[in-house]
Amino acid sequence: MDLAFPSSPLCLKTLNSHVTRSSSFISLFSTTTTATTTTTRLRKFSNISFTISSLATTLSSQPHVKAYDSTQLENKKHQLLTSIQDTQRGLFTTPLQRSSIEEALVNVEGYNRGEPINLAKLDGTWRLQYTSAPDVLVLLEAAARLPFFQVGQIFQKFECSGQSNGGVIRNVVQWSIPNLLEEQEGATLLVSANFTVVSMRNIYLKFQEITVQDIKISEEVQALIAPALLPRSFITLQILQFLRAFKVEIPVTNPGRESVGGLYYLSYLDDNILLGRAVGGGGIFVFTRSQSLY
Known about the structure:
The protein has helices at about 10-60, 65-85, 95-110, 120, 135-145, 220-225, 235-245, and strands at about 125-130, 150-160, 165-175, 185-195, 200-215, 250, 260-270, 275-280, 285-290. The chain is of the alpha+beta class.
């Protein structure tokens, strides 16, 4: 007897039905298995990601990791201060130097990004080490070219201790006229402004007045006014006292008009260094903490 599949239409139909159901079952089983495998893999991946994230958080809180970050930061700050060392506060720089300084500046700024301004830490006197601001460079250039004009130290003095939203900033420029005034510190130019914190790292300045004060005449001029070999009369003493106390105040604001102002971005601040950018292309500033002037 020959063994063969039934050839009747009914039998073929029944056979096709069984094959279809079997194929559907196999397909469903395959899909279910794939989905289960994928879900299992995703769960494993999620667990791995969570473990890595937890490990990173744990490591970042460890003292040796913080010490490593602190060492890195100090190295970046050293690189920045080294890059500006021979520029005479920004007066003499090449395009390559400016590029290197900008890169070093950005490297330090990254450590302070996202943190609000600490006014208690900002309070105090900061000495200018480098700038690309045109209004400061023009003073330095004039002092370099003119034999009768000198520019000494330049400071920014913040008065904001105990404040929560602002304070006073004074730009201090020590200058002199050789043989007439004392070297480098013969007189002081003060540009005072009120400032308000307007965002996490930005302050808005409103300039108030320009002051010339602390006139210190040279010993040669003092000898002309009141020779050391002659007794100093009341008039000569009055002249000397008047010159020492001489002070000129020029208000920047006008009644009924808004004072001149500008945005200043404090990009980095710690106990001994302050970095700033005058918003709108006004230049960058590098300061180090200094002893109080007054």
